[in-house]
Amino acid sequence: MMIIASNWKMNLDRLSAEQLLAEMGSCPVSDKVSRIVFPSFTLIDLARTTRDHIGQTVHITLGGQDCHDAASGAHTGDVSAAMLVEAGCQWVLVGHSERRQNHMEHSEKVAAKTKAAQAEGLSVMLCVGENLEERESGKAEATVTAMLAASLPQQVDADKLAIAYEPLWAIGTGMTATPSDVAAMHQAIHNYLKDLGLKDVPVLYGGSVNPDNASALLALEQVDGVLVGGASLDADSINAITLAAEN
Ligand code: PEP
């Protein structure tokens, strides 16, 4: 099973979100491919209605871009995992580098969010990645496995988990990790998860994925899908990436 995940970030208005989903719905997918869309909170309901109108067979599930680790309470501006479930989400993205950087979210917080989300029945897409300095000094694998170790709660449900490896220097920059670097990092992540007894956890690559580089990345046996930011906002691009996963 290949996962093609769209991270819309803080983009799209209601009309463009509806049109994009409709065009995604016109791209046929087999059972081999599963699509996840992470809209902004205010677009989740519209995305669900539009997806249901197209039909469940389009294999599009929805996710929130973040959630709070508390079940409820005085957390102005935050959204709980239960609220995402009620809005129709099956997934939540946690630990995205933009949250880690812009909202000072440390791995311990990411672990708490993962625990809270799984407790509500959500599947978690947990993001990890090294910065350029860590990559250039040969510390990429050590950084990523340490980040992963700190971001996983004590008891984690492997059936409700996916890891997105997103090197920081590749996000939104047009720079992509080479297939051999991606293969090596994904292997390290798979090995680490296996050592923890976490079996069959998909590991996705993210960072400037586009229709030109998607096939080479998706062809790697260590890669179980891609998390797409910028290119996910364009129907032709995300459909081309989806079709690359089919082949
Ligand atoms: C992301 O932020 O999750 C991402 C992968 O972005 P982009 O594809 O734009 O690099």
Note the main attributes of this structure.
about 15% strand, about 250 residues, globular, alpha/beta, 8 strands, 8-stranded parallel beta barrel, binds phosphoenolpyruvate, TIM Barrel
Number of helices: 10
Q: Could you tell me the number of beta strands? A: 8
Gyration radius (Cα, Å) is 17 Å
Assign the CATH superfamily: Aldolase class I
Order of helices and strands: EHEHEHEHHEHHEHEHEH
Between the first and last Cα atoms, what is the distance in angstroms? 12 Å
The structure class reads alpha/beta
Question: If you consult CATH, what is the topology?
Answer: TIM Barrel
Bound molecules: phosphoenolpyruvate
Question: Could you walk me through the main structural features you see in this protein, from its secondary elements to its overall organization?
Answer:
There is one protein chain. It contains ten helices and eight strands. With 247 residues, it is α/β, with parallel strands linked by helices. It has a single domain (2-246), classed as Aldolase class I (TIM Barrel, Alpha-Beta Barrel), CATH 3.20.20. An eight-stranded parallel β-barrel has the order 1-2-3-4-5-6-7-8, surrounded by six helices. Helix 1 (14-25) links the parallel strand 1 and strand 2. Helix 1 packs parallel to helix 10, helix 5 (107-119) crosses helix 7 (140-151) and helix 7 runs parallel beside helix 8. The longest helix is centred in the last third of the chain and has 17 residues, at 179-195. It starts with a strand and ends with a helix. Bound molecules: phosphoenolpyruvate.
